[in-house]
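Internal tracking record. Fields below are filled automatically when a chain is submitted to the structure queue. Please do not edit lines marked as system-generated. If the sequence contains nonstandard residues, flag them in the REMARKS field before resubmitting.
Queue: standard
Priority: normal
Entity type: single polypeptide chain
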Amino acid sequence: MATLATPPTPTDANLYVIHPLDDVQEQKCTSEGLGLMHLTPTVRFALTTLRVYLIAMTLIILYRTLTLTHLLPQHAR
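SYSTEM-GENERATED OUTPUT FOLLOWS
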């Protein structure tokens, strides 16, 4: 593994780019003890609408796939 980079001394003419794998590691954040997130009614409505939309699109794709594979009976035309 690569050695950790030493902090460069930037000058006006030089910009240093350090790859994240070569950079000094930092402590990771944990989400323990944060509890539930409080949502406004507008955000709750938007997320519910998105969930319903994604479920509907999944059902449409499933229906279309089943009709193309002839696993559903043909309806009268």
